[in-house]
Amino acid sequence: PSTPRGSRHRTRELLLERDASTVRASSIRAELKQAEILLNWLQRVWHEPAVSVRVILRRGPKPIRDKSTAERLLAILESHGWLWAMDEATVEGKPVRKAWGVYGKGL
Description:
alpha+beta
């Protein structure tokens, strides 16, 4: 049986939308997994009450050692209540302009 051309087109659109939605969900899951890796590092390895992007780039988990990824994951952890943004802090004995406090680390 033949299907009207418009119906086939709509079916194709629905399949493309579903595929795009699946890709977005997969991307979000991967990003949350990376955020979990960073959180585990902050809780188990990092012993200071505040952390900076620079520290994550130098000492953090290897898959997270690029600036845009580190900043994006810090924002995710902040939005989920694991960190809070600070305008000034001391990290590794040096003052920094932008840092994140790690809840439970004693600041």
